[in-house]
Design goal:
Radius of gyration: 31 Å
Strand content: 5-15%
Structural class: mainly alpha
Oligomer: single chain
Strand order of the largest sheet: 1-2
Number of helices: 28
Number of strands: 16
Length: about 725
């Protein structure tokens, strides 16, 4: 034990001694003259005793501690004692000399005297930093694991699936019949209750699988909120258990009491999750609306598919009951154990479990609201409900459930590590670290791009406000004078001043990530000295990466796409020549919702549909249609390039196909990644991918993308006489 921990241990032993003394009142110790002639100082009052006495942990007369008084024997069983008695928690920790990690003995009901100081302040909690959830996932979280051991729930996706498997319930819509146990007794397929105040399961979301997570769907991870307020004790007083409401008011207006927290809705929550048309209400009410939708769907499914009407009572075990008069409401005599609902199908169980999960953590709207939203929407969908008006996830920057942020999960205790080359754009802290530490993008001798000034970081649950806003000068955004692209070219939306120095602009922050990962430069470096039409095993497809809108906007100025030698390319697309006329990221996109400001298009184009806009009567794609939107011109040319690429590869003894959703995108006849590239074909493939991966390319710089498409077709030997190159 190091010196620091020894001091902590000594201090805790003093606290425990004080607690024991306090149990008998505030006493003073008589002078021990045999040891010293000076009188011994009085034992101090127990720290935080008054705060604890007013908390739920000290409410020894409440149901969580008195539930077993009338049982025979009157004792808290081992599977409950960890959280419902101090002795049980100490047993679980092993501080009583027993094996750690389990409760060995029941606790007499009379001894269930709340969660006392000694439950959390003892030698077993000093070094405790991990907690294992019912799903089997272990989380590292420091001191907060003391809270999380009990506020994690009792069930998970894993246990729900285990019950379904145990009963052999392969038909998800069939009512599951009882099975026999080893003694020949009937075992019923019943409801599984997550238990109460499972705040930690909500907080950690998809990482710990506290809710029922449907196959094929992805879920938000830990709700990181903001630094310092993303943990149990960061938001709650550890002794009173009350929310630190006064600190919420630092950022959230009109918050003076706990009830006001229900009205909070962060700017990242731009969607109408419950479909009621209100995007101003707090997240509590969005979840409440979804609960109403799900409950209606549960009742409909129960009556129509399971064959028995159902009602729910949050205060009566086991919560779901037969609706004997089929009126949809809980009537007298219905919410009793003998009337417990039993017509469970696997599909109904999953949805009912999630409904209960959403209700039994009353702070779910703060702990992990997006995770709960996802569970509720998915449950409605699985039951066959209409989700067309519901929203499941946030705008891309805040969609913590998406591949952009979840790609690295599972590599380290449920929360993977993002490599240094990806952290700038795929973690909440990567970009500010990159800016503050003077990081830069460089092109290596091998032709790849590299990021300096960054190290691997834990995966994030989307971006945070502090990703773009400098916390030290809140709410100012980080100042970025210029941005270096993968080609090595440097640009700025602010242009240059009279002295030739780059001028900072807020939209430069967008360029830091929306610039792609490759360029003409990296392609040329990788292909230098190779025969253009010779199949070369050393030639590999290079992926521009996704949403390289900044590279498209600046076009030939930054060489984002593959630009052929001897050809001229347009540079930055000045959408309108006059200053301030929708030429920057923030001019055209809502910086939080990310959606294009289509209403601005109507000012000049008489439409709010960008795909219908064109500013020229030139028939670029040669199809004779000069009224279609410029997107139509780009799409036709992209299709022509793909056809030409396939023809070229076939002529060179290969067969290539493309799948935009599957890495490495181009595949051979064997279904594996295409490997018979020539330098010529890989250039064309790079440009084809480039255009498809910037979904707004037709707006960002249509002339540039038309140029690279036509040039790619021509380089492959295609006939471009019918096209018009800008």
């Amino acid at each position: 034990m190091n010196f620091k921990k020894m001091l902590i241990l000594i201090g805790l032993l003093i606290v425990v001694g004080a607690v024991l003394a306090a149990c008998g009142g505030n006493q003073t110790t008589e002078p021990a003259t045999a040891v010293t002639e000076a009188p011994v100082a009085p034992v101090p009052d127990t720290p935080y005793l008054a705060e604890w006495q007013g908390s739920g942990h000290a409410d020894v007369a409440s149901e969580p501690f008195r539930h077993w008084d009338g049982e025979d024997p009157a004792e808290v069983p081992t599977f409950c004692a960890k959280c419902h008695s101090t002795a049980g928690y100490q047993d679980f920790l092993g501080v009583d000399g027993s094996e750690a990690g389990k409760v060995d003995a029941a606790v007499a009901a009379a001894d269930a005297q709340g969660v006392q100081c000694a439950a959390c302040h003892n030698v077993g909690t000093i070094s405790k930093t991990t907690v294992t959830f019912p799903s089997g996932v272990t989380i590292t979280a420091g001191d907060d694991v003391r809270c999380m051991e009990c506020h994690q729930g009792r069930e998970s996706k894993v246990s729900v699936d285990a019950q379904i498997e145990k009963f052999g319930a392969t038909d998800v819509d069939a009512v599951v019949a009882p099975i026999k146990d080893d003694q020949g007794n009937d075992v019923f397929f019943g409801f599984r209750n997550v238990h109460y105040y499972a705040a930690a399961a909500t907080l950690y979301g998809g990482l710990t699988q506290g809710g029922y997570q449907y196959e094929g769907m992805t879920y938000d991870a830990k709700n990181t909120h903001v630094e310092g307020y993303d943990s149990c004790t960061g938001c709650h007083d550890p002794h009173t258990l009350e929310v630190k409401v006064e600190q919420c008011a630092f950022c959230h207006e009109d918050v003076a009491a706990v009830e006001d927290l229900k009205d909070i809705r962060m700017i990242s929550s731009a969607n109408d999750y419950d479909g009621d048309g209100d995007v101003e209400e707090g997240m509590f009410y969005e979840i409440e609306g979804l609960q109403t939708v799900l409950y209606a769907e549960i009742q409909k499914y129960a009556a129509d598919k399971a064959g028995a009407a159902l009602v729910y009572d949050s205060a009566a075990y086991p919560y779901f009951f037969v609706d004997t008069n089929t009126n949809g409401a809980v009537d007298e005599g219905e919410a009793v154990f003998p009337n417990a609902y039993s017509a469970w199908t696997p599909r109904l169980l999953k949805a009912a479990y999630n409904y209960q999960v959403s209700l039994k953590d009353p702070g779910a709207f703060a702990h992990g609201n997006k995770y709960i939203v996802q569970l509720l929407v998915d449950s409605v969908a699985d039951l066959g409900g209409d989700t067309s008006k519901l929203a499941r996830e946030d705008a891309g920057h805040f969609a913590g459930n998406t591949e952009a942020f979840r790609h690295w999960d599972g590599e380290e205790e449920g929360n993977g590590i993002v490599p240094f080359g990806c952290v700038k754009c795929h973690t909440a802290t990567g970009l500010p670290t990159y800016i503050q530490d003077g990081g830069t993008t460089v092109v290596t001798g091998s032709g790849s791009t590299a990021i300096t000034g960054l190290s691997p970081m834990p995966a994030s649950n989307g971006l945070l406000c502090s990703t773009c806003h400098n916390e030290e000068a809140w709410p100012e955004r980080y100042v970025t004078a210029s941005v270096i692209f993968p080609s090595g070219k440097t640009v700025s939306f602010g242009g240059k001043d009279a002295d030739g120095k780059f001028v900072a602009d807020d939209s430069n922050l967008c360029l830091q990530c929306h610039q792609g990962r490759e360029s003409t430069t990296s392609m040329n470096n990788a292909l230098r000295g190779k025969d253009l039409d010779a199949v070369d095993p050393g030639v590999r497809f290079k992926n521009i990466h996704y949403f390289a809108a900044g590279a498209t906007i600046f076009g030939g100025d930054v060489l984002g796409a593959y630009q052929y030698e001897g050809k001229e390319y347009v540079g930055q697309n000045m959408h309108a020549d006059e200053a301030g006329k929708l030429n920057k990221c923030a001019d055209c996109h809502d910086v939080h919702a990310l959606e294009p400001k289509v209403e601005s298009c109507e000012t000049c184009h008489d439409t709010t549909d960008p795909t219908a806009i064109r500013e020229s009567d030139v028939d670029y794609d040669g199809d004779g249609d000069v009224t279609e939107g410029i997107k139509g011109e780009v799409d036709t040319l992209a299709e022509a390039l793909y056809a030409e690429l396939q023809a070229y590869t076939t002529a060179n003894g290969g067969v290539v196909s493309y799948d935009p959703a599957a890495y490495p995108y181009f595949f051979g006849a064997d279904g594996k990644g295409y490997a018979t590239w020539t330098p010529r074909s890989v250039k064309a493939a790079f440009n084809y991918q480039y255009v498809l991966k910037d979904t707004g390319a037709f707006v960002h710089n249509p002339k540039y993308v038309i140029q690279i498409l036509i040039d790619s077709i021509e380089d492959l030997g295609g006939n471009v006489s019918g096209y018009t190159r800008p």
